[in-house]
Amino acid sequence: MNHLFTPTTIGNFTVKNRFVRSATQDYWGNEDGSISDTELQLYGQLAQNDVALIISAHSYVQHPLGKASLRQNGIYEDRFIAGYKKVTETVHRHGSKFVLQISHAGRQTTLDLIDNLKPVAPSAVTNAVTGITPRELTEAEIQQLISDYAAAMRRAKDANCDGVQLHIAHGYLLAQFLSPYTNRRADRWGGTIENRTRIIREIITAGRKQVGDQFPILAKLNSTDGLSGSGHLTPDDVLYTAKLLENYGIAAIEVSGGMHEAKGVMAQPGVNSPEKEAYFAKAAEMLKQAVSIPILLVGGLRSAQIMENVIANGVADMVSLSRPFIKEPDLVKRLQQGAKKAECISCNACFKHEGLRCYYKGGTPS
């Protein structure tokens, strides 16, 4: 494991190894959206066990329309800064780095989560999972969204986070603007890839005015919608966006894929052999060859040798894990001590809304 346990640099900070805790909704937040004591313990435990870079569960930038799930953390008001400041202090105490992921649900929400309002999206495309047709955002609402994302970046900096990550993946609002499947606008926010990425450019520009040039902004980027047929995100779209992100000073790109309507894409079940691991590796390698900023790879990484190969072969610069750290927060230490793989069997039982934990008991998910 010559590469996995070497330091590397993202933006203006150095991480002690190549392991990332990818953003994972934990359902442990307080009802008012603030950080709970349970979440503080969760992040502290990961840092104590040498996870070098910890990315928070997605925190929503606009209330109530931006909320995507139960007990989700918010970052839409200054009152949330104190909680994240405690998280950052705890994580730093163990020599790890903490990045706050910011997002907006867009069409991927339910009426009960957003006070029975109609969900918003780039276009009025029915969500096949919920059956809800969102309403198209107005120009004024898009401008407000840009301001809300920028303010969220400033709050992350005020909380002493090491950076912020824009969630442009998994079918949430910025991914909705990026994909021609969910963005069918005929104005300057839709149509060409240049127009579909306009909101991302505007958010980064507005955010920089609030956080300065040195505060690291990262991005989580969809490599695919996960749906077949024409009218979806293409590799050319992804390459264009990655190069745009680099040109606009993004510090690193985490490569993922899928959306709620594409079942079994972003968290593929049954990853029980090396051949099934690292399922976004080809996309990561494509971006690694196109940009010079660090690439983080998430998706089905389980075996120590596969993770090592990802780094050694130049597929990505860091490996991001979600489900394995739910079952084994001490996985990094176990791998360093010679463990061959994670114990996670990718049963996906951990995605219950009862709080983030491994529910695998006695040979079957409970």
Give a verbal description of the structure.
This protein has 366 residues and is of the alpha/beta class. It has one domain (8-365): Alpha-Beta Barrel (TIM Barrel). The chain is 31% helix and 14% strand. The protein is built from 11 helices and 15 strands. It has helices spanning 37-48, 81-93, 139-158, 173-178, 193-196, 198-211, 235-247, 281-290, 304-312, 323-327, 331-336; strands at 8-10, 13-15, 19-21, 53-55, 59-60, 97-103, 120-121, 135-136, 163-168, 217-222, 253-256, 295-298, 318-321, 360-361, 364-365. The strands form 4 sheets. It has an 8-stranded parallel beta barrel with strand order 3-4-6-9-10-11-12-13, surrounded by 6 helices. It has a two-stranded antiparallel sheet with strand order 1-2. α1 runs parallel beside α2 and α7 (235-247) crosses α8. The longest helix has 20 residues, at 139-158. The radius of gyration is 19 Å and the shape is globular. 51% of the residues are buried. Mean pLDDT is 95; it is low at 362-366.
Give a concise summary.
It contains eleven helices and 15 strands. With 366 residues, it is of the alpha/beta class.
CATH homologous superfamily identity: Aldolase class I
Q: Are there runs of 5+ residues with pLDDT below 50, and where?
A: 362-366
Number of helix segments? 11
**Cα distance spanning the termini:** 34 Å
How are the strands of the biggest sheet laid out side by side?
A: 3-4-6-9-10-11-12-13
Number-wise, the strands total 15
